[in-house]
Amino acid sequence: MLFKYIQNWKKAVTSFALSVLLFACNQPTKELPLFEALSAEQTGIQFENKLHPNEQFNMFHYMYYYNGAGVGTGDFNNDGKADIFFASNEGDNQLYLNQGKLKFTEVSKQAQIPQDSAWNTGVSVVDINNDGLLDFSLGVSFSQSNGE
Ligand SMILES: [Ca+2]
Ligand SMILES: [Ca+2]
What we know:
Blueprint (H helix, E strand, L loop, with lengths): L1 H25 L13 H4 L26 E5 L8 E5 L6 E7 L2 E4 L11 E9 L8 E9 L5
The protein binds calcium ion (CA) (2 copies).
């Protein structure tokens, strides 16, 4: 009788433990976000690709109006940190050097980044001349300065 009582007690404890485990497994877990938006003040990045459509120049007259610009990342100054190049459509292209801890400094003037009012369609990053420094090239559909 005592043996049977102990067996039943073990089954009850085991059933209870399995029920708790199953219940715990079915609880929705709170997922942590993968990304967090940081402000321009936090990162130092002020770039915005602002577009100014008007009656003469808009997506109805130029179907790629909203397809433009681009972003390229790479370690442009070989300090081990990924830097960012932003291409613009109607504003200035900008190069930011990574200072670490998600802080960046704009160095467009020092780097002599051309500001040619070109309608940029993309950025590629590669060491094209094999000098050990990354280069970037811009895809351009036309230049607003000469209308081509
Ligand atoms: Ca760098
Ligand atoms: Ca190079």
